[in-house]
Amino acid sequence: MKPIIIALPLCFIVTGCVYRVKEIDPNKNVQYTEEYGHTDQKKAVEHFSQSLAKSNSLAVGDTKPVIVLYPISNRTLDHIDTKGFSDKLEASLLQGGRVRLINQNRSEVNAETSPELTAKVDPAMRVQEAKRLGADYILSGRFTSIDRKEPKGIRLRKGRLLYYQLTLELTRLETNELVWKDNVEMLREGRKPIIGW
Length: 197
Hints:
Layout lengths: L1 H15 L21 H17 L11 E4 L3 E2 L7 H15 L3 E2 L4 H7 L2 H4 L18 E13 L7 E16 L4 E17 L4
Parallel strand pairs: 1-3, 1-4, 2-4
Antiparallel strand pairs: 4-5, 5-6
């Protein structure tokens, strides 16, 4: 009887420590914490793409307006990959077909057209820098957050309320006019046991 009593808890401990991996659909809403995650990013990109597409502020004659997306600033205390958000937003805007975008990776473009490199390229095949697009609009934005923890008290679980706001704005360069602005809000509550790991 004693070997069974010893073996049973040991079995639970060993099986609980096994590392597992499983494939998850990226479109599925999976939240482990109250912090900003991949589902929030996807929803925000969809919201902003649709909001900008419905807006009448993108009018520059008969041609598609040219936008430069500036880096999104992170004013939260959390690490948020704003470059990942920008990449998804750019892809969504391009697929919408209403705008043209200037490549943010200008250092790579400048390296490709540097005098050192172009001297080695056939003159008939060299890129003429004067044909580069100028932006009609700047799209910029910021992440902000408010983080509140439940006040101290006698309880078995402690709570945290986390609010995120992502704001984007579109400025027409010619006039410096703010022509479009929208935001996405996320509010999530997390509760965890006082004792745990």
